[in-house]
Amino acid sequence: MSFRFINAELNANALSVRDEPCPFFKRYNTMQTKRVPRSKISAGSCRPALAVVILILTITAVAAPTPSLSELKGMTVSFPVEGGAMSGVLFVPAWTPAPAVIVLHTKGLAVEPADVKFAETLANEGFVAVAVNYLEGAGGKLWAPVIDERLSQVVDLLRERPEVGDKPVGVVGFSLGAHGILVSALNPAVKAVVVYYGAYDPRKAKGKHFGPDVKLPIDVVTEVNAAVMMLHGSLDNEVPVQIARDMEAALKSAGKKVELVVYPGAYHRFDRGPTARMSGNRTRDGFIYQYDEAAEKDARKRTIAWFHTYLDGP
């Protein structure tokens, strides 16, 4: 079932009832108008009642029931950014303009089905949501500064779209998706960031070395413009929870709004489990990727609430 709203107006010649579909996508922006000649409206009976209805409809949106997630359809988009384009899957909620949320995938190099599903969930909650392939154009370098510069451009491009209309933007990232913190340091339009099992300080990982031009999330805590929530598993053996605790302490020391939630017994990728290429739940490096239903559901609710708190206007 699609969302529709009714807009009625009365002029000197006719009553115009305009039935408009909600703009899920631009191609739906068609309009049909049915006109009722004024001569056919009874002056003694119908017209007063119609006037009351008109006054109500001009200030009240009448909608069909909220569509289920399965009824929302994503569309492929391409953002023209520095050095080429950044592709993604965009979902638009029933009512716009609305705040936007960018979904950043893990180090798996591209958007996963779980990322698309998360964007769909956010759209059902009233956000314009897009899962982007943000490593495109990075030359295989996971922390290249150009990644965050390009994502900052996507933030600006989203706010130019009529579906967003200059409203604030949030970012939710998974693991390597901690890039969202770097983007919030570059672009003040990013008002809320949520990171699942984030790689905040990869320098602490064995054998990791970075050039002097590379900035990691731990390096920009004083520049962050957003409220940050971090969600981490206590048994994460790829990004130990102590790294998240250190990031929390650094953000607090910088006077930033931050909240860390630790899920007892949860591992890395607790919201989605092993990758499609894995035959079990342990990687070749010995990292455990395991789905935790209770942690996933709680984290999802907290994420949605965080974005409503910091992105919804008065």
Concise summary:
With 314 residues, this protein is of the alpha/beta class. It is 26% helix and 23% strand.
Describe the fold and architecture.
It is a single chain. The protein is α/β, with parallel strands linked by helices and 314 residues long. The chain folds into 2 domains: 4-59, no CATH class; 71-311, Alpha/Beta hydrolase fold, catalytic domain (Rossmann fold, 3-Layer(aba) Sandwich). It has helices spanning 46-59, 113-124, 145-160, 179-186, 241-253, 293-311, and strands at 4-10, 14-21, 32-37, 75-81, 84-91, 100-104, 128-132, 169-174, 190-196, 227-233, 258-263. Strands 4-5-7-6-8-9-10-11 form an 8-stranded mixed β-sheet, with helices on both faces. The chain has a 3-stranded antiparallel β-sheet with strand order 1-2-3. Strand 8 (169-174), helix 4 and strand 9 form a beta-alpha-beta unit. Helix 3 packs across helix 4 (179-186). It starts with a strand and ends with a helix.
Keywords:
314 residues; 11 strands; 3-stranded antiparallel β-sheet; disordered N terminus
CATH C-level of the largest domain: Alpha Beta
Q: In total, how many domains does the architecture comprise?
A: 2
**Oligomeric state:** single chain
- Average pLDDT confidence is 81
Report the helical percentage: 25-40%
Named CATH architecture of the largest domain = 3-Layer(aba) Sandwich
Q: Pairing-aware structural class of the strands and helices?
A: alpha/beta
How are the strands of the largest sheet arranged? 4-5-7-6-8-9-10-11
Number of helices: 6
Q: Per CATH, what is the topology of the largest domain?
A: Rossmann fold
The CATH fourth-level homologous superfamily of the largest domain: Alpha/Beta hydrolase fold, catalytic domain
Question: What string gives the helices and strands in order?
Answer: EEEHEEEHEHEHEEHEH
Shape: globular
Largest sheet at a glance?
A: 8 strands, mixed
State the end-to-end CA separation: 29 Å
Backbone CA Rg = 23 Å
Low-confidence stretches: 1-71
* E-strand count: 11
Task: Tell me the β content.
Answer: 15-25%
